[in-house]
Specification:
The protein has 78 residues and is mainly α. It has 3 helices and 2 strands; from the N terminus they run E-E-H-H-H.
Length: 78
């Protein structure tokens, strides 16, 4: 998935947060919804102007960001 065609950043839209192209729906919002347990179907139903490929682009963007960023230290649990 080539996310660069679907995820954009513009300082005039949501202060430059990455958004799905052509929308004001941020990557952050999608991740928050999914972390809260929303399904892909629920997201697409609630935001009909985005597609399944847009959601794939969100996760591809996150994957690439994880390759380039520092990780938060995790505590071991017993």
């Amino acid at each position: 998935m080539e996310w660069r065609t679907r995820i954009v950043s513009d300082k005039d839209i949501l202060l430059g947060k990455p958004v799905i192209k052509g929308t004001r729906i941020s990557v952050e919002l999608i991740l928050e919804l999914m972390a809260e347990g929303w399904t892909e179907a629920q997201v697409l139903e609630s935001y009909p102007n985005i597609t399944a490929d847009d959601l794939k682009a969100v996760f591809a963007y996150l994957r690439d960001g994880m390759h380039q960023a520092m990780y938060l230290p995790l505590r071991r649990t017993a």
